[in-house]
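hey so i finally got around to running the thing on that chain from the lab meeting. sorry it took forever, my laptop kept dying and i had to restart like 3 times. anyway pasting the input first so we r on the same page abt which one it is
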Amino acid sequence: MMNISLAGLLGAIAGTVVAGVSYHLFIGVLEQRMREREQLQTAEERDSFDARMSLVRRVVLTVDLFLFAAVGYWIGSTVWD
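ok and heres what got predicted. didnt touch it at all, straight out
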C-alpha cells in the first residue's frame, strides 16, 4: 500500500505552483524565439505554425507539471517527515 504524507502532498502542491510560474515565464520566450526563426508568409504556414506551437505548449506544460510536482513531493516528504 502506498503511504502518502501530508508534507509530500504540500510539497507537490508547491511544485505545481512553481510549474505554473515556470511555464508562464518560459513559454512566452520560447514562442517569441520560434516566431523569429520561422519566416511565415502564407496563411497555411501561419496555421501550421500555430498548430505546432499549440502542441509544444501542451508538452511543455505536461512535463513541467509532472516534473515539478514530483520534485516538490520528494522534497516535502524528505525534509519535513
